[in-house]
Amino acid sequence: MRIAMIGTGYVGLVSGVCFSDFGHEVVCIDKNADKIDRLNRGEVPIYEPGLDELMARNTAAGRLSFTTDLAEAMKGAEAVFIAVGTPARRGDGHADLTYVYSAAEELAPLIADYTVVVVKSTVPVGTNAEVGRRIRAVAPEADFDVASNPEFLREGAAIEDFMRPDRVVVGVTNGRAREVMSDVYRPLFLRETPMVWTSLESAEMIKYAANAFLATKITFINEIADLCEKAGADVQQVAKGIGLDGRIGGKFLHAGPGYGGSCFPKDTSALARIGVELASPMRIVETVITVNDARKRRMVEKIREALDDQLAGKRIAVLGVTFKPNTDDMRDAPALTIVPALIGAGAEVRVVDPQGRKEGEALLPGVSWMNDPYAAAEAADAVVIITEWNEFRALDLERLRGIMRGDRLVDLRNIYVPESAREAGFVYTSVGRV
């Protein structure tokens, strides 16, 4: 098949590259000429493990190309994917659909033969139907259908998620569109990947419901962690005990500094807004948002308490600032709340992150960037782990303690065993453990 992918952000680029690896001919389109030039030179603008190699292989095979010319890209395309951003709108938290509707209206007059316009972007219920209306308004005679195909990609594991998904959700309105979408995903049929065929509205809702539920699990275990600290329990043991229940599952039950990233914050806000507009309030989701925002601020207090309520004049080494490991994404990362608060309280902050510096330099003014955790910890009063990169999981704790001025290790991801940290000479603080 020939596929056009509008948007070369995280979702569009990963999806386009993976579709080309399925054997489809894929053309990725973006208005940013500089980004397209970089892609045509083989430069990947985002960090995602394995994406550079996959992109190079399929470009060399002639199945993958990049352009700013939408009209050229759409020639012969049986499916046109809209994979543009839907950031949270300022003021009300709703998804900003400007880019989605703009893409729909621009592609409308370019539809020649039957085409399925697939909305890959995360959009509120009713958006796909509105996309269809807007295309029809611009091109009344166009032969097309709209399909909803939300993505479920985890940053840092996106290629595996795309190639071996738990399920593929596709919302369609008729058998003709379903047939085209079946061809798009036919390589997954051989692996017996579950295909969930729904209405447009149900597909839209599935995406929001999934992310809101996962955000709720994270927030729930974080509140349980606080209770464990008060009661003398161990949140990791509690999480294991409840996670082995098949009705609950162990994923996303890891206590920490709160969720961030490109999806959970904006999708929970958008779902809460949808509930308000449709007079069906999402009270649980609203509470999750409030608790998660407070969670990040609470981590600042945890660090302050570990340093005997004295941050001014302290040198603090921060390990990890991206919202999760194996990504360079800083959007709504807990570090964006924690680090500025430490600096504002008078601390000197040194930061180490394998991929976070590119975005972090602009977002975290006032920090010193280091390339090595031991260099960052030299003469430090405390080491704070915010993001659990593999590079930070097996540090030589005795060496680390030996080069520090102080003895405080604040582990906000619970990656170390308390006894081991204390044996190395640390006054150790973690989350939900005593």
Short description:
Helices cover 44% and strands 14% of the residues. By secondary structure, the chain is an alpha/beta fold.
Care to describe what's here?
- The chain has 18 helices and 14 strands.
- With 434 residues, it is α/β, with parallel strands linked by helices.
- The chain has two domains: 197 residues, Rossmann fold (3-Layer(aba) Sandwich), CATH 3.40.50.720; 236 residues, Rossmann fold.
- It has a six-stranded parallel β-sheet with strand order 3-2-1-4-5-6, with helices on both faces. Strands 11-10-9-12-13-14 form a six-stranded parallel β-sheet. Strands 7-8 form a two-stranded parallel sheet.
- α5 links the parallel β4 and β5.
- α5 runs parallel beside α6 and α10 packs across α12.
- The longest helix has 32 residues.
- The chain is elongated, with a radius of gyration of 23 Å.
- The model has no long low-confidence stretch (mean pLDDT 96).
List keywords for this structure.
single chain; 434 residues; alpha/beta; Rossmann fold; 2 domains; six-stranded parallel sheet; 18 helices; elongated
- Separation of the first and last Cα atoms: 57 Å
Number of helices: 18
Low-confidence stretches: none
**Helix content range:** 40-55%
The CATH class of the largest domain turns out to be: Alpha Beta
The total number of structural domains is 2
CATH fold-level assignment of the largest domain: Rossmann fold
Rounded mean pLDDT score: 96
Principal-axis shape equals: elongated
Strand content: 5-15%
